[in-house]
Amino acid sequence: MIISSILVIAQEPWVKLDLKHRLIRLGYDVAIASCLSALRERVWQVQPELVMLDARIAASVQPGLVEAIGAEMNLPIVIFGVQGLRLADPVLERWNRVYLANPWETEALRAAIATALSHHQTQTHAKQTQTTLQETLHQEIAHRRRQTQFMRSVDHELRTPLSTLLVTFDWIEELEQEDYSSRSLQKLTCLDRARSSVRRMGQLLDYSSLLCQSRSGDISFRPVALNLLVFCRVLIDELRELDHEITIRFSANDVFETQTLVLDPTLLRHILSNLLSNAIKYSSKGEIRFELQYDSGAIAFRIQDQGIGIPQSELAELFTPFYRGSNVGTIGGTGLGLAIADQLVRAYQGTIIVNSEVNVGSTFTVTIPCKFQK
């Protein structure tokens, strides 16, 4: 950083004049002042880029005032004429100040100015970076809050008509069931399709709302005492009810037989049901392995399938909302399940790792911290 002007503040006239001439010989424009109280006025008049302050003036004012003025005026300050510095340290940077023992030595004077400028530049850059990061963070938080508010509005506006449709479908179905004609059976088939479509729309609303909540930090934890073995087995049974042809092999450490954990069942259900549902959806054959392990204060849920797999080049995008693999073909999906699982695992301060090979299968490992009930 190159500067052109310096303001010298000293009480003794000969000190000011001598130092002024030395600095002029070094190529600087120099202004002088006799007291610290004149700093603001002189800064406004001459617009210096560095201040050199006599140590006796610095010692006579309230502690911290020099740094406060320097920060307020955004100016680096060199305090010169300091007694007690070792000769090996003609220039010393300490406590956010630059000290110069002997301003009459040209090289020491150069070094003091360079040190003060470097320190000031580093501090200024750090403050600018911090300000930029804070502004970016506030903008991101505000953006996510707007997203969440929008999704809540959309959710509210769509839930009622969707619920009305389902009730209407049920009413029509009751009427048509009294008629055993082929035309009536066709109507019932159409009703089933319409009902399934409405339910998929409802599920999409659920996923979108949950994703916005997790990304905006609105997810609330409600941990309770939980028998994890029972919880997982119930979840597996529910999935089997949806597809009787699937085979899920479940295994767990012995520790879960005797210990009760403290976990949030709602978040855990979202995470595991998304991963298990994907394993079922993308596995047309073969069994699914669901393993539960405990180690060093954390639980690892490992779900392995023998499905279509994921191309290696696409793994980095796997948890991006609405992203779907290039090899899914006609298999239905929203592209939100894994994004939601990833966000919820992060909210749980856990990790999710995937290993996959095309036409061989995928393994998802979710690790979350936990504690046993006392």
TrEMBL record:
It is an enzyme of class 2 (transferase). Its EC number is 2.7.13.3. InterPro entries: CheY-like_superfamily, HATPase_C_sf, HATPase_dom, His_kinase_dom, HisK_dim/P_dom, HisK_dim/P_sf, Sensor_HK_Regulatory, Sig_transdc_His_kin-like_C. The keyword Phosphoprotein applies. Residues 153-372 form the Histidine kinase domain. SMART domains: HATPase_c, HisKA. Keywords: Kinase, Phosphoprotein, Transferase, Two-component regulatory system. It comes from the Bacteria. One of its GO terms (molecular function) is phosphorelay sensor kinase activity. It catalyses: ATP + protein L-histidine = ADP + protein N-phospho-L-histidine. Gene3D superfamilies: 1.10.287.130, 3.40.50.2300, Histidine kinase-like ATPase, C-terminal domain. Pfam families: HATPase_c, HisKA. This is histidine kinase. It comes from Myxacorys almedinensis A.
